[in-house]
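Re: that backbone. Tokens:
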């Protein structure tokens, strides 16, 4: 476009995103860049202080192994993650993060994050792996350290409010990224020796439960829209676990967290008849053995048991807040003063849990006169999300660290640089890297640090700047800005610029995507159930949607961002549908159910389901990768073999 300035930035390491993984990467990269005379550039579509999933704050750090206390080992954490993911996990990646995550948490505390301590000065645990914190400023604290590391050392620069669209490639090597400012007419070309993708996961791929006046409210932050997946898919990187979506059960409508209730307050959830589905439906777990037999029961199975009650007409499901608080306070019942004091303390902890990370849930409680010590609150399964760092697992297939490989795993899981995707020079962390779930905020930060260190090693050993073809950049610029041209050209042709035979606006495009995914790929409308015929129809409809994406129109820079966010979501959707179709079984009931393949098939599908897009031919290649172990297997899993 004529009135656009093209800004070219050359750097050694390009960090994409400004969330937990990117902030970890920035801190580590700044140190190694100083040692090696390198430049580091971080680009975020928002402002790093409050961007990403931790923007609103968190009330718990979900991954702390506590190695220094000697209570848990790295293997314990790997066992937990493997079981929660129904056997599908990369032990080398999970172990690499688990052995480093504590140091990220200790850094957070050093930087000023108030983690709860008990009277002996020990961290207060919410559960075995979780720490309680006063976390409304969690992201600000972590961002400040990242900014200080990059800017005060003089090695780095930060671009905020620049939306990254896609990769620049030099053959099979990533050569940087392109994007645009969401505030000024500037198109950005970032050329780099190594690129670290940390642009989070994806929401609003599926139709959300909150629509109409609640539109935009979701569990996952609406501004993470599948950019990591799009970037790595377009770079030709192999992707893994694209079928593993996450459906959190949360307080209904405002998506308030349940962790503190289940783990700290030891609350039960019951149906409208007072039945406890975790007790009454226990026999169901046997169908999903060996995973269903292990404690903690995998998150998808816990979801599933509640969903079965709802499908049987026993809803709503209630979090029994009044029962849980009453039970804790009952220890003080003989002393009225102490009882009242304890109740006040519990009540304030309950509200603070929401105020620290999901303020809207506190607002909903207040506006519907809920007093948690008096009244239960509804909980419900939300819609599907892609969040490989939480209890999902989707992301790029990345190399593990060299020192953790066995002779067997080395062949499959190691190709030179830890956390590098199969595209050369393209590193991934947090939601961007797959098969290593349960990293959460702290593990994503740790993985960012690990990936950044490996990326610096890559740069030192591959020091030539990759070549970028000018004609390719010009074509990308024209294609990326096209929605602005389309609007300019046609918007005056109808009385209402929202409706036009020559284009569609991003909002309508998103609604169509969500409808396809909801009805055909197992969304809320079908109780997360799908089958081969539905999935094939989804692919057919996604192909039409892809065709129509060329007609997207944007009236301003904000809408241009919306256009590209939705294209990113569409590619995440396609990778998901293809992989659910490819995996001929149901492995994660509670996340999705293949009605035509209703059972788990350990013999044939105890494997990773991977996909890879070839940008040259436009073809997708589906393949399996073996599950190999670096640790001895727990007894109940021994029969599973490799
Ligand atoms: C609702 C919710 C509750 C959670 N609760 C907890 C908890 O209690 N404890 C815990 O430890 N963890 C929790 N997590 C998990 C934790 O937030 C994530 O694991 C972690 O934030 C993932 O880090 P990330 O860097 O991959 O993504 P994020 O932290 O989400 O960062 C993504 C970054 O990418 C940027 N970005 C996105 N697209 C683009 C683009 N196109 N161009 C440029 N930049 C882009 C974003 O602005 C953001 O800076 C929770 C997550 C959610 C969603």
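Recovered sequence:
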């Amino acid at each position: 476009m004529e009135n656009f300035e093209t800004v070219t930035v050359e750097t050694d390491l390009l960090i994409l995103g400004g969330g937990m993984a990117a902030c970890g990467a920035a801190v580590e990269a700044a140190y190694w860049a100083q040692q090696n005379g390198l430049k580091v550039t971080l680009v975020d579509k928002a402002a790093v202080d409050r961007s990403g999933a931790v923007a609103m704050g968190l009330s718990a750090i979900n991954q702390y192994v506590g190695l220094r206390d000697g209570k848990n080992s790295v293997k314990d954490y790997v066992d937990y993650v493997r079981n929660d993911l129904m056997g599908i996990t990369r032990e080398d990646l999970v172990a690499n993060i688990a052995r480093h995550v504590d140091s990220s948490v200790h850094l957070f505390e050093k930087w000023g994050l108030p983690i709860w301590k008990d009277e002996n000065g020990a961290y207060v645990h919410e559960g075995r792996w979780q720490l309680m914190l006063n976390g409304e400023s969690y992201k600000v604290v972590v961002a400040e350290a990242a900014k200080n590391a990059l800017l005060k050392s003089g090695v780095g620069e930060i671009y905020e409010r620049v939306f990254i669209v896609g990769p620049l490639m030099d053959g099979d090597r990533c050569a940087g990224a392109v994007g645009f400012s969401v505030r000024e007419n500037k198109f950005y070309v970032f050329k780099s020796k190594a690129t670290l993708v940390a642009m989070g996961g994806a929401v609003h791929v599926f139709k959300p439960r909150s629509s109409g006046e609640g539109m935009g409210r979701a569990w996952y932050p609406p501004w993470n829209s599948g950019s990591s997946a799009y970037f790595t898919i377009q770079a030709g990187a192999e992707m893994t676990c694209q079928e593993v979506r996450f459906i959190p059960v949360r307080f209904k409508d405002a998506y308030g967290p349940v962790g503190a209730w289940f783990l700290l307050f030891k609350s039960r959830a019951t149906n409208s008849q007072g039945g406890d589905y975790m007790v009454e439906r226990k026999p169901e777990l046997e169908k999903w053995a060996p995973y269903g037999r292990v404690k903690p029961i995998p998150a998808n199975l816990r979801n599933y048991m509640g969903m079965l009650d709802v499908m049987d007409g026993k809803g709503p499901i209630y979090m029994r807040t009044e029962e849980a608080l009453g039970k804790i306070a009952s220890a003080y019942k003989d002393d009225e003063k102490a009882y009242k004091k304890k109740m006040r303390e519990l009540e304030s902890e309950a509200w603070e849990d929401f105020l620290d990370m999901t303020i809207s849930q506190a607002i909903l409680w207040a506006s519907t006169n809920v007093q948690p010590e008096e009244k239960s609150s509804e909980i419900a399964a939300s819609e599907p999300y892609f969040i490989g760092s939480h209890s999902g697992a989707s992301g790029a297939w990345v190399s593990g660290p060299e020192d953790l490989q066995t002779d067997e795993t080395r062949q499959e899981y190691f190709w030179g640089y830890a956390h590098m995707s199969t595209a050369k020079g393209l590193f991934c962390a947090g939601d961007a890297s797959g098969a290593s779930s349960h990293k959460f905020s702290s593990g994503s930060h740790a993985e960012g640090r690990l990936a950044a260190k490996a990326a610096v090693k890559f740069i030192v050993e591959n020091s030539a700047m990759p070549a970028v073809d000018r004609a390719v950049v010009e074509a990308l610029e024209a294609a990326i800005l096209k929605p602005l041209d389309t609007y300019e050209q046609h918007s005056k042709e109808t009385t209402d610029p929202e409706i036009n035979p020559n284009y569609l606006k991003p909002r309508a495009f998103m609604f169509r995507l969500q409808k396809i995914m909801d009805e055909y790929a197992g969304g809320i409308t079908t109780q997360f159930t799908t089958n081969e015929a539905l999935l094939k129809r989804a692919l057919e409809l996604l192909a039409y949607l892809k065709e129509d994406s060329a007609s997207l129109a944007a009236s301003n820079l904000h809408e241009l961002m919306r256009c590209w966010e939705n294209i990113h979501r569409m590619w995440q959707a396609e990778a998901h549908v293809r992989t659910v179709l490819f995996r001929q079984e149901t492995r994660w009931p509670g996340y999705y159910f293949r009605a035509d393949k209703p059972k788990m098939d350990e013999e044939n599908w105890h494997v990773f389901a991977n996909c890879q897009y070839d940008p040259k031919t436009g073809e997708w290649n589906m393949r399996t990768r073996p599950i190999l172990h670096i640790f001895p297997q727990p007894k109940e899993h021994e029969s599973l073999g490799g």
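Residues 638-642 have pLDDT under 50 and may be disordered. The pocket of flavin-adenine dinucleotide is lined by residues 16-22, 43-46, 51-54, 58, 60-62, 163-164, 198-200, 219-221, 223-224, 227, 389-390, 430-431, 439-442, 444 (CB under 6 Å).
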